[in-house]
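Section 5: illustrative case.
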């Protein structure tokens, strides 16, 4: 019986695909946020600080020109505002945001970050004065501490320039303005010095939402179109990736679902190949093992049911024979006995009585064969013990049993039980034996059954009219075993059966 796979498998694939799309989107957004947070501060600082730095350089150039017309600055002069607290690594803008607040820093600077600073540089590239003499020491070559482009602007004699660049103390936004001897001088006159202004560009991670808003305000919504397009393009790409990645997984889950439906419908021979070494692969392997065990258990249960039915049938037949035919035989024996006593010399009456006695003995032997029913429930040894007890109690035969437990397949157990029953019947019915010995043993890959009796014996090589020995040999031959019979007239018989077992 095969069932239909429910549409739930498509729901699983849809959920997996959606999860892939969401994860992909989340990764892209996270990467963009990290890039914005770590990489755009320089862009924002450069765009936001450039104008105040240029304005500050021009303002100081105009203010210092009248005071130092020949760029001769007194020793120990510290530019900037001494009332401001130095904040290394942070730009300090004036309240109006048009210029920089430049602190005068006369003490050592413990931080290695760049500071907001003003530096006066002579035409020969030497520092004349600064707002931070500890870092920009008078007399030192300016090229050692300024960005390369700023140092080139000064050495080439250009009157002004601006940009951003690296210094020994980090990245800065900078501007250079020429300082002329006369404050009213025109730009075509030769400058006597240059004023360099800088503001540190803040690094590290900043809020991506803030960065996003500032980029929109600086460049307009069009500057972020590529980011939006990337997020939109991720949707079909993530969906395709999710479908491809989940297709095999969903197919394996469907196969498991179909297998469970088959088992639910009664097909216990389902076997799933292991399709991988992951959890589903182990589940497939365990499922196959479970179905095999279940199939074996059901087969064993069917065999037990068949055995129980056979045992019940044998019991019913034995009861019917005992209650009907045996009673008639007993009545016939009593009538024959009365006739013999009334006519002692009548030969036919004595013959009837003898035949009746033999029929009763045969009936008892037949009942002994029908009664044992413990083979399926308790094994070979218990079943043979029941046969022995039946012959002891019903026929008065002395039976000595030396039975050892043997581990053999059910077909061999059944054959050995039937052989023992046939040997008992032959010994009692045909050999008139009153004493039997039965033994079982197992060694060297063989199981052995021996039945010996003290009956009249016979010649094994002579033809026999009965079929008992023929049936024994046929059973043993089917199992690949051997039969050996040792007997002689008046010396009883010994039957030895050896059957190979795995």
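Designed sequence:
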């Amino acid at each position: 019986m095969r069932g239909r796979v429910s549409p739930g498998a498509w729901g699983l694939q849809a959920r997996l695909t959606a999860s892939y799309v969401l994860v992909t989107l989340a990764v892209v957004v996270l990467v963009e946020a990290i890039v914005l947070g770590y990489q755009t501060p320089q862009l924002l600082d450069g765009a936001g600080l450039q104008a105040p730095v240029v304005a500050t350089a021009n303002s100081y150039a105009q203010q210092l020109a009248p005071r130092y017309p020949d760029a001769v600055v007194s020793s120990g002069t510290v530019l900037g505002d001494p009332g401001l607290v130095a904040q290394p690594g942070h730009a300090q803008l004036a309240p109006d945001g048009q210029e920089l607040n430049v602190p005068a820093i006369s003490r050592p600077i413990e931080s290695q970050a760049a500071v907001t600073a003003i530096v006066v540089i002579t035409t020969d590239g030497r520092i004349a004065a600064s707002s931070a003499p500890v870092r920009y020491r008078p007399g030192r070559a300016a090229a050692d501490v300024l960005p390369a482009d700023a140092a080139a602007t000064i050495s080439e004699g250009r009157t002004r320039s601006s940009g951003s660049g690296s210094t020994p103390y980090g990245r800065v936004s900078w501007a250079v303005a020429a300082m002329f001897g006369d404050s009213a001088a025109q730009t075509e006159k030769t400058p006597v010095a240059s004023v360099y202004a800088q503001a540190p560009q803040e690094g590290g991670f900043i809020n991506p939402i803030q960065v996003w808003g500032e980029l929109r305000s600086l460049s307009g919504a069009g500057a972020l179109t590529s980011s939006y397009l990337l997020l939109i393009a991720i949707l079909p790409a993530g969906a395709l990736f999710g479908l491809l990645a989940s297709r095999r997984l969903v197919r394996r889950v469907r196969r498991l679902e179909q297998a469970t439906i088959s088992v639910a419908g009664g097909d216990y021979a389902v076997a799933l190949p292991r399709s991988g070494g992951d959890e589903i692969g182990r589940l497939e392997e365990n499922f196959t093992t479970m179905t095999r065990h279940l199939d074996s258990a059901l087969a064993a249960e069917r065999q037990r049911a068949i055995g129980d039915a056979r045992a019940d049938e044998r019991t019913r037949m034995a009861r019917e024979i005992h209650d009907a035919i045996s009673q008639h035989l007993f009545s016939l024996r009593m009538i024959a006995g009365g006739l013999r006593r009334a006519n002692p010399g009548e030969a036919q009456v004595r013959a009837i009585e003898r035949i009746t006695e033999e029929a009763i003995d045969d009936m008892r032997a037949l009942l002994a064969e029908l009664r044992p029913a413990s083979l399926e429930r308790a094994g070979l040894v218990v079943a043979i013990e029941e046969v022995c007890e039946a012959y002891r109690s019903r026929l008065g035969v002395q039976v000595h049993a030396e039975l050892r437990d043997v581990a053999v397949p059910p077909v061999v157990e059944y054959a050995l039980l039937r052989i023992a029953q046939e040997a008992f019947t032959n010994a009692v019915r045909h050999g008139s034996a009153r004493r039997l010995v039965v033994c079982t043993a197992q060694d060297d890959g063989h199981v052995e059954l021996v039945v010996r009796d003290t009956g009249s014996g016979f010649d094994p090589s002579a033809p026999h009219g009965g079929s008992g020995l023929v049936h024994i040999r046929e059973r043993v031959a089917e199992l690949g075993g051997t039969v050996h019979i040792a007997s002689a007239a008046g010396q009883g018989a010994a039957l030895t059966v050896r059957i190979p077992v795995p």
